[in-house]
């Protein structure tokens, strides 16, 4: 992913150097297990443990000669090792025993980093929802004025969506945090299953229960689906901010510094560019999700068609999502909210926002539904809704936003339970 949409902690996790560090860790642990089995001498393990993680530039140099990254890594890893020790490295293993087990470790760490960012977004949404729980605003359906709600209620809905996304990500983490060290077609023909057990348990991974030569790719498809869904939930937040930021609405505005310049030609502009960026990044994540589904079906015990895809999609999906979620957190924390504009939008309806309450009251008092509905509808098309209602003998005095918030505490109690997750 380009640096513009990368944060250092996630980008570093997916660097070539980080990958080779994890590969070296897997090779050391595999050798430890082989020593415990009596297949590798203790002296060799000492040399293997003390070997330096090869520099990414050196692996790339050797790959130009070998055209095989794993063999190039192993050559670089063993470069300064005595031959009597080097010959025990990678004993009984195939390339993807190393690659997929290390990938499981990296994916688990990346999931933890992304889930942490998503929890912070959830917290920001909950806190903003609590702060604006009684900030009355107009609800909209089909983009049109509907009934009163509160801005806190809107934000609560987003908070629960992010909470579900966190749980989906946690489930996906469990599915991808697996490895396999089972040999060329997954039969353990040349390697004892104990090696897999030792390596995976040490790394905090599960083991693929019926390995072929690779970890099953439906796991990774599920993961990127979860990431894309998280991205879509962030997009939902961003879209609401964009809609409420329009000039004729201006109920919220993105936070801006004094240095902000919104348009090269129109100095008055205050564009919701952060929200627009979050929306665009969600589109990328949905594309990645579809691509990963193409990786599930491989030829026989394995082919290599998934590899080039994953080298791009997995780092990019995590990096984009991490950036997107972190940016959304900052947006929500510092969002400028205008309660006066929200109330003005309700008042601007001239009472139309209360039409459902009028209908309910008249029906409860015994009026016939079809005639009553038409009468209210006709009044809504007139110049003064309340005046026309009064000519029909309808009382309008008690109508106001509070009428629609009588059970608002029910939702608040649910939000409080979500808030407790962060304390």
UniProtKB/TrEMBL annotation:
Domain of life (superkingdom): Bacteria
Residue numbers spanned by region Disordered: 255-274
Pathways per UniProt: Purine metabolism; IMP biosynthesis via de novo pathway; 5-amino-1-(5-phospho-D-ribosyl)imidazole-4-carboxamide from 5-amino-1-(5-phospho-D-ribosyl)imidazole-4-carboxylate: step 2/2; Purine metabolism; AMP biosynthesis via de novo pathway; AMP from IMP: step 2/2
Keywords: Lyase
Enzyme's top EC category: lyase
Protein's UniProt keywords contain NADP: no
SUPFAM superfamilies xref list: L-aspartase-like
Fumarate lyase N-terminal domain location: 76-283
A Pfam family matched in the record: Lyase_1
Signal peptide: none
Gene Ontology molecular function, alphabetical: lyase activity
Keyword rRNA-binding: no
Alphabetical list of InterPro entries matching this protein: Fumarase/histidase_N, Fumarate_lyase_CS, Fumarate_lyase_fam, Fumarate_lyase_N, L-Aspartase-like, Pur_lyase
Family the UniProt entry places it in: Belongs to the lyase 1 family. Adenylosuccinate lyase subfamily.
PANTHER family (UniProt xref): ADENYLOSUCCINATE LYASE
Protein name: Adenylosuccinate lyase
Gene coding for it: purB
């Amino acid at each position: 992913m380009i640096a513009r949409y990368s944060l250092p902690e996630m980008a570093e996790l997916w660097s070539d150097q980080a990958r080779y560090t994890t590969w070296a860790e897997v090779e050391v642990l595999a050798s430890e297990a082989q020593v415990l089995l009596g297949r590798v001498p203790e002296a060799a393990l000492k040399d293997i443990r003390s070997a330096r993680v090869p520099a990414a530039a050196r692996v790339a140099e050797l790959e130009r000669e070998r055209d095989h990254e794993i063999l190039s890594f192993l050559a670089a890893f063993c470069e300064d090792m005595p031959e009597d020790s080097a010959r025990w490295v990678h004993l009984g293993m195939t390339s993807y025993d190393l690659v997929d087990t290390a990938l499981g470790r990296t994916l688990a760490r990346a999931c933890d980093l992304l889930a942490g960012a998503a929890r912070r977004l959830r917290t920001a949404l909950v806190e903003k929802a609590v702060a604006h729980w009684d900030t009355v605003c107009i609800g909209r359906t089909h983009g049109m004025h509907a009934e009163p709600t509160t801005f806190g209620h809107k934000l609560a809905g987003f908070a629960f969506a992010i909470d579900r996304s966190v749980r989906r990500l946690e489930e996906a983490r469990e599915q991808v945090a697996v490895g396999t060290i089972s040999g060329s077609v997954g039969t353990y023909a040349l390697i004892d299953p104990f090696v897999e057990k030792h390596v995976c348990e040490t790394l905090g991974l599960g083991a693929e229960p019926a390995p072929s030569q690779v970890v099953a790719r439906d796991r990774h498809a599920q993961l990127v689906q979860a990431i894309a869904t998280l991205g879509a939930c962030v997009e939902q937040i961003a879209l609401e901010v964009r809609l409420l930021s329009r000039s004729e609405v201006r109920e919220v505005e993105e936070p801006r510094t004094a240095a902000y310049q919104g348009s090269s030609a129109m100095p008055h502009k205050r564009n919701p560019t952060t929200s627009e960026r979050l929306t665009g990044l969600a589109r990328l994540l949905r594309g990645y999700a579809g691509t990963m589904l193409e990786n599930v079906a491989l030829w026989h015990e394995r082919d290599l068609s998934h590899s080039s895809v994953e080298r791009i999609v997995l780092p990019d999906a995590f990096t984009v999502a991490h950036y997107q979620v972190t940016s959304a957190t900052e947006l929500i924390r510092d969002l400028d909210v205008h309660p006066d504009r929200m109330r003005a939008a309700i008042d601007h309806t001239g009472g139309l926002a209360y039409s459902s309450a009028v209908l309910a009251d008249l029906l409860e008092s015994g009026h016939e539904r079809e005639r009553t509905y038409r009468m209210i509808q006709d009044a809504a098309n007139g110049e003064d809704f309340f005046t026309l209602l009064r000519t029909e003998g309808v009382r309008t005095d008690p109508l106001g936003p509070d009428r629609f918030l009588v059970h608002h505490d029910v939702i608040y109690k649910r939000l409080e339970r979500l808030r407790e997750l962060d304390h």
